[in-house]
Amino acid sequence: MNTEAIYSDETGQYVIPMEANPGDRVTIRLRVAHGHAREIYLLAQDTHYLMRPAQAGERFDYYETQVQLGDQSFSYCFSIRENEQEQCYFDKYGVSQEIRPEYAFRILPGFATPDWAKGAIMYQILVDRFANGDPTNDVLDNEYHYIKTMSRQIKDWNQLPNADFGVAEFYGGDLEGVRQKLYYLKSLGVEVIYFNPLFVSPSNHKYDIADYDHIDPHYGKIVLDQGQTLPEGARDNAGASRFINRVTAKENLEASNQFFADFIAEAHARGIRVILDGVFNHCGSFNKWLNREKIYRPDKGYAPGAYEAADSPYHDYFHFYDENQWPDNGTYEGWWGHDTLPKLNYEGSEDLYRYILEIGKKWVSPPYNADGWRLDVAADLGHSPEFNHQFWRDFRKAVKSANPDAIILAEHYGDASSWLQGDAWDTVMNYDAFMEPISYFVTGMEKHSDAYEPGAQGDSERFENAMRYYMTKFTGSSLYTAMNQLSNHDHSRFLTRTNHKVGRASALGVAAASEDINIPLYKVAVLMQMTWPGAPTLYYGDEAGVCGFTDPDNRRTYPWGNADYPLVDYHRDMIMVHKCSSALRRGSFKFLKRMKNFISYGRFNEQERYVVAVNVGAETLEADVPVYLAEVADGFMVQAMLTNEKGYSIMPTKYAVKDGMMHVSLTANSGMVFKQEV
C-alpha cells in the first residue's frame, strides 16, 4: 500500500461544506493511490460509514461518504484496507497502525470563521512607532509621571528605544500617521491592520488601559489643549493639568472616537480591515475605575475610583486584599503582582462583566465597525478555567451578535484546542504551529533570542514532527485564520534571530541586534510564511529590515526614507504570489520530502498546485521531490518565486515533472515556489 498517497483534511476540498450547521448533510472525501484500496470506512464514534468510489484518476482514487450532523462535535478517522494483510488508519497526524482519538478530524456544527480572514495578509502596528502624522497630539516632556520616570518626547524619529525600560518614551506615532500611510500598506498588499491597543493609556504600548470607551487623544485628536506639565522632579499626577485635560476632556475623547470611526471607514474603502487589541484581563493604575493617579475628577463628571473610596461604584471591579485601607487602598490584586496592572475582578462584579461585553460589541458596531478583536493574555482572564470559558462564550455571543463577520483571535501559548471548540475563540496567534517551529528550523533560535540550538537549525524531521503535531490542535476553520507571525511586539525581530546572538539589548547593546544578520535566510522564512496555511502577519517594519532584540528593542520606529527597499519589494512580490492563489489562501497542505536543511511541501486545490522547497543550509543541495503527492501532473511546473543570496526572481521558468517527480537544485539560503494550474 502506498501510504504516502493517502490524504484528507478539513478544507473545502475534502469536507463539503467546510463549515456546516447542525442538521446538515456533509460529504467527506479521502484520497488513496489508484487501485490500492479494497475497503475504506470512515470511523466516527460508534458508527462506521462505508466509503464509496467517487472519482478515479491515473494516480489517485477518491472515496466519499455522507454523514448527517447533529449539534455536537463530529470526530472521525479513516480505516483503509488493501488486502487481508495490509490495513492502516489515517487521521490528522497521518498514517497509523492504530486508532488515535487525540488526532481525529473534527467538524464543529455551527462554527465558522470569517471568510475574509482565511489566508488574509495582516499587518501589526504599534502606533507610537509607525508614523507621526499630527505633531499637535504628541506626548510632551514631563506631561505626567509613570512608574519611575517622567513622560518623554523623543524628537529624533531614528533614535533607538531605551534598552532597559522606556515605557514612557514617545515618538509621536498616531492614527493620522497610519492614515497617511494607508497607500503604502495597500501597495504592499495588506488586507488587515492589527493594532496594538489604542485606548487611553499612559504607556507607549498601551496594555495598561485607563478608559476602554475612548481612543487615546494622543493617537487621535486634541482639540482642547490647556493646562501645565509637571514641574521637574514632581511625582503627583494630580497636578498634571495638561495631561488631565488631554485625556479626560469630553471634547478630546469624542473627537478622537470620531476620528477613529472616520479612519476605519477610509481603511474599509481601500479594502483594508481593522482588528483591535482587547486587554480585558487587567487594566492600568490610571484607569478611571481605580483612579490611583487622581486624574479623573468629579468636576469633570467622573465618579470616585475604587482606590480612592470604599463606596466607589467600581469597588467590586477589583479585588482588595485588605478592606480597611481606604482612602487610597493599594492592596488591590495586580496581574503577576504588578500594581500598575490591576487585575479585573469579573467573578466579583456582574456590572464589570456586562460592561466589558458591551465594550466588545461597541467597537465592532456602527459608527466604528472594527472587524474583530485580538485578545491579550486571554486564558488568564478569570481565576479558573471554568469561569474563563464561560466569559469567552458570552463574549463571543455578544461580539457576533453585533457583527457576525468579526473575528475573535486570542493570544495564547501552548495547546489552545479547548478554546477552539466553536464556542469561544475563532483562532489564535500561532506560536506553536508556526512561529516557534519556523524560528528553530530556519535560525536555531528561541523566539526571544534567549537560546540558540545549533542542532535545531535545519533539522527538518524535528520541524515536520512539530508542525504535524501542533497543526492537529486546530480545526480547518481555525488553522486557516491563525495569525502566522515571524516577529511581534513580545519577541525579538526575526531578522535579528538570524545572527544567533543570545541575549537582550540591555546586556548586548542595541547595535548587536543588527550585526551579522542573514537577510537571504530571513527571506526564506518569509517565503514559508507566505505559503503556509493561515493568515501571514507582518510586524511593522520587518519588511523594511528593522532589527531588534525582545521588547522594548523590538519596538523601534519604522525607518521611513531609510528602509531596505529591495527587501520591501521582495515582500510585496511574495505577498502578491500569496494573494493571487486560492491554493495558498485556502488549499490543502502536505509535506513532500525532507532532508537535512531541506523541506518541501505542497499546497493544492482543484484549480492550482503549488510546491515549495527551501534550503536553510550553507551548501547547495539537490533533491527529487515527489510532487505527485501534491496532485501535480506530469509535464512541467512554473517557478513563481526564487530567492537566494544573490536576490530574488519572479521569472516564470519551467521545471519538468516526470513520473510524478521534479528535480530541484537549491543554493545556500534559498527558497523556491512552483505553480501548476489545472
Structural class: alpha+beta
The helix content, as a percent range, equals 10-25%
Main sheet record? 8 strands, parallel
Strand order of the largest sheet: 22-21-20-19-16-11-24-23
Distance between the termini: 27 Å
Give the SSE map.
Blueprint: E1 15-16, E2 25-33, E3 39-44, E4 47-50, E5 52-56, E6 60-68, E7 74-81, E8 87-90, E9 95-96, E10 105-107, E11 122-125, E12 145-146, E13 149-150, E14 152-153, E15 169-170, H1 175-180, H2 182-188, E16 192-195, E17 199-200, E18 211-215, H3 241-248, H4 250-269, E19 273-278, H5 350-362, E20 372-375, H6 385-402, E21 407-410, E22 427-428, H7 431-443, H8 460-471, H9 476-479, E23 483-485, H10 494-497, H11 505-508, H12 519-529, E24 535-539, H13 565-579, H14 582-586, E25 588-595, E26 598-604, E27 608-615, E28 621-625, E29 635-644, E30 647-649, E31 654-657, E32 662-666, E33 670-677
Parallel strand pairs: 11-16, 11-24, 14-15, 16-19, 19-20, 20-21, 21-22, 23-24
Antiparallel strand pairs: 1-2, 2-6, 3-4, 3-7, 5-6, 7-8, 7-10, 8-9, 12-13, 17-18, 25-26, 26-27, 27-33, 28-32, 29-30, 29-31, 29-33
Helix pairs in contact: 5-6, 7-8, 7-12, 12-13
